[in-house]
Specification:
Helix content is 31%, strand content 34%. A hairpin with a 5-residue loop joins strand 9 and strand 10. With 454 residues, the chain is an alpha+beta fold.
């Protein structure tokens, strides 16, 4: 289930698409048929399956297939990749949730890389401290100064109290070392080298579209990888969505239900959003929200309620993904310390009537890292509809649920017409259009993402 990938053997089509016409603001931007065909083909659930050995293989296969380099712009298209690891394995009842969280983490890592590379600032500081004592008496401890009469009295009182406590502990059968102890330390050589690096970044992302995802097993854990693209077209579509207006980007597409997997099990391979064109040539954002639940009750009603709650969470995940496509604000702060710490020291342990000395060299590598990321997005839900709710059990009987949500300008227009009806501004034509749009909403959706769409 997790190894299904939808890479296509259409390098020639993609190469031609890289030379597609730029979007103009004065007229409708018609996307060439071959470019749309490539995108739609990538979105097809019946595409050829390729099983990479690892997520890194998945990234390399994709780059080689389409002749791209991650992070580099080719004719206005820039590709990105990132991965994350699921917290639990497939035999855990929470695997469905862990997989959804891992996808969100992988896509966040991708967004972080973009913000860091685009808006990042870095400050570095290196500190070095050294100390050596090669004196003739370097290994000799200085004699303790004689105590005053009052200090001697306090010492005797302490020893007396300590002896009394020792006797009480002995009566209780507690093993201990008699007498109070004091440790003295003399550093013969010390060397400390620390490099502090701080990276900060803050910026906005819009139009970043996941194209493909893959889940592969790595030992006892599963990695999930995400490949995404950004271009002038995707940014323009995101901007049109933000202002709830008809996009000037057009292309020859097909009915969006043809992009969906044919079975519920097929949805187990789908994550994130996809950009496709419908039969009217309008861009559509499909979003696949996923979650899981556990049948831990003997009462069927309780289990069904758990399923309903999980599907609501999946719908929220799908809406959030669409919102992040429109506009995401992200701030990043990373700190790291690296270096070494060497200390050659002489230690003297003084106990009642006994003195012990030891010499030790401690060598340590310094490796400390911390990061803080804050990502926020918001948008009106007008224009987003539910296409399909699904549920499936994987091979390990883990329960997965999902909701496919989609955004289109047709949905926005339909909502506006409904609001017009409520305000008494309806007409027969408006009512007919509203009915037609509701049929559109009922169509099935699948996770689709194309390179040549962008």
């Amino acid at each position: 289930m997790f190894k299904n990938l939808k890479l296509l053997s259409i390098c020639a089509i993609f190469a031609m698409s890289l030379c597609a016409n730029e979007v103009t603001t004065n007229s409708v931007a018609e996307i060439p048929a071959n470019e749309v065909e490539a995108q739609n083909a990538m979105s097809d659930a019946s595409a050829q399956d390729i099983t990479p050995k690892s997520i890194e293989d998945f990234f390399d296969e994709f780059a080689n297939e389409y002749g791209i380099s991650y992070g580099e712009s080719i004719n206005g298209k820039t590709f990105f990749s990132a991965k994350a690891t699921a917290m639990v394995g497939t035999n855990d009842a929470d695997f469905a949730k862990a997989l959804s969280v891992a996808y969100n983490e992988a896509f966040l890592n991708l967004q972080i890389d973009f913000i860091r590379d685009t808006y990042g600032k870095q400050a570095a500081q290196t500190l070095r401290k050294t100390f050596t004592d090669n004196s003739t008496n370097a290994k000799e401890f200085e004699k303790l100064p004689p105590e005053s009469i009052f200090a001697q009295l306090l010492t005797k009182i302490s020893e007396l109290a300590g002896a009394k406590l020792d006797e009480m502990l002995t009566n209780l059968g507690v093993d201990f070392q008699k007498g109070l102890s004091e440790e003295r330390k003399k550093i013969l050589m010390a060397e400390n080298l620390v490099k502090n690096i701080q990276t900060t970044a803050m910026g906005q992302i819009s139009g970043l579209v996941p194209i493909q995802t893959a889940v592969t097993k790595d030992g006892s854990t599963y990695d999930i990888g995400v490949i995404a693209v950004m271009s002038e077209k995707t940014v323009q579509i995101a901007r049109d969505m933000k202002f709830k207006r008809n996009s000037i980007i057009k292309g020859k597409g097909k009915n969006i239900k043809e992009f969906l997997p044919t079975t519920n099990d097929g949805f187990l391979d789908e994550f994130g959003i996809r950009l496709v064109y419908d039969e009217n040539g309008a861009p559509v954002i499909l979003s696949y929200g996923r979650w899981g639940y556990i049948k831990n009750s003997s009462d069927e009603y309780v289990n069904k309620r758990q399923k309903d709650i999980a599907q609501k969470q999946a719908a929220a995940q799908a809406d959030a993904a669409i919102s992040e496509f429109v506009a995401l604000s992200l701030s990043l702060k990373e700190n790291s310390q690296s270096g070494k710490d060497v200390e050659h020291a002489l230690t003297q342990l003084i106990t009642s009537g006994n003195t012990q000395e030891s010499e030790k060299v401690a060598k340590n590598i310094i490796d400390i890292a911390s990061s803080e990321v804050k990502a926020t997005s918001n948008m009106q839900l007008k224009g987003i509809r539910t296409l399909k709710r699904w549920s499936a059990s994987d091979k390990n009987n883990v329960e997965h649920v999902g909701v496919v949500r989609f955004y289109s300008y047709a949905n926005v227009k339909n909502t506006n017409e409904v609001l017009g009806i409520q305000n008494g501004k309806n007409s027969n034509q408006t009512q007919q259009k509203a009915v037609k749009k509701s049929q559109d909403v009922s169509s099935k959706s699948k996770m689709v993402n194309d390179l040549d769409d962008f």
